[in-house]
Amino acid sequence: MSVQPLRFFQARHAEFSALLAAPEEGGGLLASLLSVAFRHFEDRAREQCRGAEPIDCRKGCAICCTLRVTATAPEVLHVARHLREDSSAEVCVRLVRRLLAADGLTRDLDEQGRVELRHRCPFIEQGACVIYAVRPLACRGHASHSRRACLQAAAGRSASVPYSVAHRDARSLVQNALQSALRDCGLGWVSYELNHALRIALSLPEAEGCYLRGEDLFADAAVHEVPAEEMADGFELIKRIWVGSFAAG
Ligand code: SF4
Questions:
Q1: Which atom of ligand 1 sits closest to the CA of residue 69?
Q2: Cβ(121) to ligand 1 under 6 A?
Q3: 10-residue block means of pLDDT along the chain (249 residues)?
Q4: Hey, CA dihedral for 79, 82, 84, 89, is it positive or negative?
Q5: What residue owns the CA closest to ligand 1's atom 8?
Q6: CB of 135 shorter than 6 A to ligand 1
Q7: What's the total number of domains in the chain?
Q8: Which residues 6+ apart lie within 8 Å of 40 measured at CB?
Q9: What are the helix (H) ranges across 29-134?
């Protein structure tokens, strides 16, 4: 039996908060946060998928990688670090060049604008994601039950793709718990458009340190589909429910 969403959120929030309260020596905080986030996302999505129609995504399929990707600041900084430290100079230069070109095309386009533009993510090479290990939760949470439907949607013949509810919900729960914990620490916690935010992160050698000192580095790249005040109210409401449930228990 899987843990109920509220309990799951609460446990992840506590785990993220504990990591943020006692950062490791050597700058591993963001990697630790995301290792926890990605592991819990995978576990929950797998658990919630049991008995459901199989997922039809496969390696080398990048049909949906033209959609807008949003990410939290730790995810943006994690990808930036990966590009700087884990890629050869040649690959890094190539990817950054493509990222800048993509940002020039996608800047300020909303979700529908990105669907219409159909510009591929700059991180696709030979049909595969070259930052797969560090891809944001938004990409992980986008899983389809029908590749055929994805192809039709990409060709503009249909708008209806049977996305996995389990993956979508697991992404929301983990991401929102992370955002709530970041907010409690006074760190930037909203979602940012990936191309734009990465451009900012890569232009600042001290981006991680600045972020962890509370600077709002990515404000210009913020995506406010749900207003930040509304999300913050939701996080506070969840906390009051915990307190209420403990008091009642
Ligand atoms: S980061 Fe990777 S998975 Fe996400 S849209 Fe880009 S290529 Fe696709």
A1: 5
A2: yes
A3: 81 96 78 97 95 90 93 97 90 95 95 91 93 96 94 84 95 97 97 98 94 95 93 92 62
A4: negative
A5: 65
A6: yes
A7: 1
A8: 8, 12, 170, 174
A9: 29-49, 73-85, 89-106, 111-117
- Quick one: pLDDT at residue 154? 86
| pLDDT score recorded for residue 27 | 67
CA angle (103, 61, 78) in 5-degree steps: 45
Q: Ligand 1 centre and the CA of 139: distance in Å?
A: 6
Residue type, 24: E
CA of 249 to the centre of ligand 1 (A): 44
Number of other residues whose CB lies within 10 A of the CB of residue 196:
21
Q: Which domain holds residue 218?
A: 5-248
Q: Which of 38, 75, 121 has the most ligand 1 atoms within 8 A of CB, as the residue to mutate?
A: 121
